[in-house]
Amino acid sequence: MREPENSLSATLRSLRKAAGLSGAAAAKRAGLTQSKVSRTETGAFMPTVQQVEALCLAYDAPASVRRRLVRMAHELSETRISAQVELERGGWLLQERIGRVEESAERIRSVGALMIQGLLQTESYMRALFGDSLAAEDLDRTVAARVSRQQLLDTDRHFTFVLAEGAVRWNMGGSAVMIAQLDRIIEESRRDNIDIGVVPWTTPVFVPLLHSFEIYDSRAVLFGTQTATALVTDATEVGSYENHWAELDSYVSFGDEAREIIARARQDYMTLS
What we know:
One of its GO terms (molecular function) is DNA binding. By secondary structure, the chain is an alpha+beta fold.
């Protein structure tokens, strides 16, 4: 069996083994198929909250563990939130939920089409990005929640960020904001657990990049549009994004090449300041 890539799958597998149950016995106790139990443990299937509860009951999991796993399953449940609802509820709530989804993953792959990804953003870039869409108090709380998410970069999780060069050259907030932002990206690119790549504008490409997206392990995808933010867990949809990631990969420059592209953009911003 393939080793699980995320804490939800790994914990459920450990609980089954601790209970001394085979996959077939666990499936019978939980009222699931054996294939679902197996695919859940390898991360190929995203169980519902009810299925996680059933497995925890079958394994006689401690209450604290059950609550933690159920919370993970809830955060990873498929959803679509309109931008208007997000603003009315408070933008920080969505940031906190995204943070919890990120915490459940061991590997995060992220594509930035026209803006820098949240985990890499400086505070000044965030404030320019949110602009006047949030009241002052809401803005402070939302920025604080997004900054808090970045603590995950200090863990042993692995991150791959891919940026279209257009995102690097989208002059968000002005040259001073962008210079500091690009300095941050170059700094983060030197971490052992972070790979940052750029698709140069000079590289001919033969695939579209319609919007930014993030893949969590191989179980869920988050993406945003002008009107909504969506988290999808359907295996077919997730697979489509993984295929798109593979298509993009051949056009990406990593390492020193990526840093050189970013440094050239930084120099251009310097001439504007």
